[in-house]
Amino acid sequence: MKNTKEILEKYKKIALVGASKDLTKTSSVVMKYLQQYGFKVYPVNPSMRGEEILGEKVFGSISEIDSAVDIIDVFRPSNEVIEIAKEAIKINAKVLWLQLDIKNEEAKRIVEANNILYIENKCTKIEFEKYFT
Predict the structure, then answer these.
(1) Can you give the pTM of this predicted structure?
(2) What is the pLDDT of residues 13-36, one digit of tens each?
(3) What domains, with CATH codes, occur in the chain?
């Protein structure tokens, strides 16, 4: 399953890394959109741990999330993705999804070696709109 349509049909629990309480930021717009279409979104931002964004408790790291996570949706610079990839393995995520203009070959090798799907340079909201709205 490499197809973004299949991924978004099958997986509904998303850790959104780089969440912001600024509701005009892209990460917030995407989070709100995904929530409206039935996705459970767990915002991740170490500087906001314990606060709320769009009605969801903010986690300081991916490994703090106390439920299963399917997709890790990354809104952080490319140079931070290797650590995020390692966290994805620890929590048995199914997909590491890097937003527009985010790419990291080393992270790709790490997750694919652990049977995690890797998507780069694509927006979850745009992909969902393309197939489902």
Answers:
(1) 0.96
(2) 999 999 999 999 999 999 999 999
(3) 4-132 (3.40.50.720)
Radius of gyration, CA atoms only, the chain: 13
Q: For residue 24, count other CB atoms closer than 10 A to its CB.
A: 7
Identify the three-state secondary structure at position 84: helix
Model pLDDT for residues 26-73, shown as the tens digit of each residue: 999 999 999 999 999 999 999 999 999 999 999 999 999 999 999 999
Q: In 7-75, at which residue ranges do the beta strands (DSSP E only) sit? A: 13-17, 40-44, 52-53, 56-57, 71-74
Residue type at position 119:
I
3-state secondary structure of 67: coil
Place of tokens 């390692």: 86
How do 13-17 and 40-44 pair as beta strands? parallel
